[in-house]
Design a protein that fits this description.
Layout (H helix, E strand, L loop, with lengths): L10 H15 L9 H15 L11 H11 L1
C-alpha cells in the first residue's frame, strides 16, 4: 500500500464479516475444525446468489450484475 491506512478502507469487509458471523457461526456453533469452512462457503453462496439486497432494490448481487450487463 502506498498510503496510510484509513479505517473507512476496511469498513465494508468488516461489516460483511460481522454479519456473516452473526448469521452463521454464532447461531450454529461449529463442532469440528472443518465445520466453519463449510458454513462460510454456504453463507457466501447464499449471500451472492439468494440473499435479497435492499441497496439493489431486490435482486441478489449476482442477479443485479447480470441485469446490469444485459442492459449495457
Amino acid at each position: 500500500m502506498s498510503r496510510k491506512g484509513n479505517c473507512l478502507d476496511d469498513a465494508l469487509i468488516e461489516s460483511f464479516f460481522a454479519t456473516m458471523k452473526c448469521e452463521t457461526i454464532y447461531i450454529e456453533k461449529p463442532k469440528t475444525i472443518e465445520a466453519p469452512e463449510k458454513q462460510i462457503c454456504k453463507y457466501i453462496y447464499y449471500y451472492n446468489y439468494e440473499c435479497i439486497q435492499f441497496k439493489f432494490k431486490g435482486p441478489s448481487p449476482v442477479k443485479y450484475r447480470t441485469q446490469s450487463l444485459r442492459s449495457t
